[in-house]
Amino acid sequence: MPFTIPSWLLPILMLFCSNVFMTFAWYGHLKFKESPLPLVIMISSGIAFFEYCLAVPANRWGSSVYSAAQLKTFQEMITLILFAGFSVMYLKQPLGWNHALGFAFVALGAFFIFHKWS
């Protein structure tokens, strides 16, 4: 019997993977500031292609389970979580209490998006 990923989980996993690519496309070049900007743009665009190959189907398939607002909320939460790790581990730029507080407010917004109001 083949392994299948539940329809509620697949778009979240795909958005997570797409965000890894996009984080490197947008911020990975910051460690290579001596590289010419046109080269960085071309490389970042190539990396972003793979992000699109994951994000577009994730949103299309995810729309059968989640609303567009919920998909966007997943996207933003995943982005913040990945970026926090990326900033600390790859860029070696620590995050402070103010970043944690800001991220907590975004998480609170996610609560309001996903909570079932009667």
- What average pLDDT do the residues reach? 94
Give the percentage of residues in beta strands.
under 5%
Counted by DSSP, the helix tally is 4
Shape: globular
User: Could you tell me how far the N terminus lies from the C terminus, measured between alpha carbons in angstroms?
Assistant: 40 Å
Radius of gyration computed on alpha carbons:
16 Å
How many E-type strands? 0
Topology pattern, helix = H, strand = E:
HHHH
Largest β sheet strand count, sense and barrel closure: none
- Indicate the percent of residues in helices: over 70%
Structural class: mainly alpha
Q: Enumerate the spans where pLDDT stays under 50 for 5 or more consecutive residues.
A: none
Report on this structure.
It is a single chain. The protein is an all-alpha fold and 118 residues long. 71% of the residues lie in helices and 0% in strands. The chain has 4 helices and no strands. Helix 1 (10-27) packs across helix 3 (68-89) and helix 3 packs antiparallel against helix 4. It is globular, with a radius of gyration of 16 Å.
Brief description of this entry?
The chain has 118 residues and is an all-alpha fold. It has four helices and no strands.
Q: Mind sketching the topology for me?
A:
Elements: H1 10-27, H2 37-62, H3 68-89, H4 97-114
Task: Name its key features.
mainly alpha; 4 helices; globular
